[in-house]
Specification:
Layout (H helix, E strand, L loop, with lengths): L1 E8 L6 H17 L4 E3 L14 H5 L1 H26 L2 E10 L5 E8 L5 E5 L5 H7 L9 E3 L4 E4 L8 H6 L5 E6 L4 H18 L2 E10 L8 E2 L4 E3 L11 E4 L6 E6 L2 H10 L4 H4 L17
Parallel strand pairs: 1-2, 1-9, 2-3, 7-8, 8-9
Antiparallel strand pairs: 1-13, 3-4, 4-5, 6-7, 9-10, 9-11, 11-12
Helix pairs in contact: 1-3
Length: 292
């Protein structure tokens, strides 16, 4: 199958129609290129706050409410586009207020036949927990699709191996990200590549890019699209299937075959996924030896 992963710039939108046209343009381009799976980044939905005006978009808490209120409309739009173009779409995540009053960082996954699922970030960054008050959401899930088994780790979640291991049945992991600095981009990229290595799977990373002077939350963005793999039989020796140009808006495309994932899990040069359990008992706190 062909995957399209986004380096996505957020815009100050004059009205809803501008957002709908922008999103359809992105989806149309990827679909016409033959892509079956489209991956948008973490917090790419923050541009919806601009529909309430600059003052609201600049206010952290007000912007959360403004975006959360628009998510149902955005969901309807994504569902329509997924069906019209016959593609799977991981929508850009958004802060969504729950019944408990605290927001979660939520992505939504749309299928070409009308299916939709929600995925919440598990572990919050310092900014999310200390400034925004975003909390961890519902547990992780694996999605059984006609393309294969797919899991999602939102940005920071990709840096935690036990979360990746929880999704070890997935052949493909999607990692939507939003990072302000080069160091942040590389943290998520290194985490993504590590998850590809230990789970012997493909990992797709998307990013927000560019500056947003209308937001305190996503004012600066650094990243690129990328698709990573275990450096093993049937895959590039570098562990990189495709990578976009840093901070250049647009799609990064990759042709992948999930049967290669199944083959390397069964008969790879190494068998990290199968041998994971051999860590048990060897991961206890080590003794301290004084060595002079």
């Amino acid at each position: 199958m062909k995957i399209a992963t986004a380096a996505y710039p957020m815009d100050f939108l004059p009205d809803w129609e501008a957002y709908a046209k922008k999103l359809e343009s992105w989806v149309r381009e990827a679909a016409q290129a033959g892509s079956q799976l489209l991956v948008f980044p973490e917090y790419g939905a923050m541009e919806l706050a601009t529909l309430a005006g600059r003052e609201v978009a600049m206010d952290l808490q007000a912007s959360i409410r403004a975006v959360s209120e628009r998510v149902p409309e955005a969901n309807a739009l994504h569902a329509r586009l997924a069906q019209h173009y016959g593609v799977y779409i991981l929508a850009a995540s958004a802060p969504v207020e729950t019944d408990e009053g605290l927001p979660v960082n939520r992505a939504r996954f749309f299928g070409p036949e009308g299916g939709m699922a929600q995925i919440d970030k598990q572990i919050m960054t310092r900014f999310e927990r200390e400034d925004w008050g975003v909390q961890g959401g519902a547990p992780l899930q694996v999605f059984d699709t006609v393309l294969g088994r797919i899991g999602v780790l939102i940005c920071y979640d990709s840096e935690f191996p036990l979360l990746g291991r929880a999704l070890s049945d997935a052949q493909l992991l999607l990692v939507p990200s939003c990072t302000e600095a080069l160091a942040g981009y590389w943290r998520v990229r290194i985490g993504s590549m590590a998850r590809a290595l230990e789970n012997q799977c493909l990992v797709v990373m998307s990013s927000t890019v560019g500056t947003c002077d209308w937001s305190e939350a996503v004012d600066t963005n650094c990243g690129a699209g990328g698709v990573f793999c275990p450096p093993d039989r049937g895959f590039p020796s570098t562990g990189v299937v495709a990578e976009g140009t840093l901070n250049a808006p647009g799609w990064t495309y990759a042709e992948v075959d999930l049967e290669t994932v199944d083959e390397v899990r069964k008969d790879g040069v190494v068998l990290n996924r199968r041998h994971w359990k051999e860590q048990a008992g060897r991961d206890a706190a080590p003794g301290l030896t004084v060595l002079r």
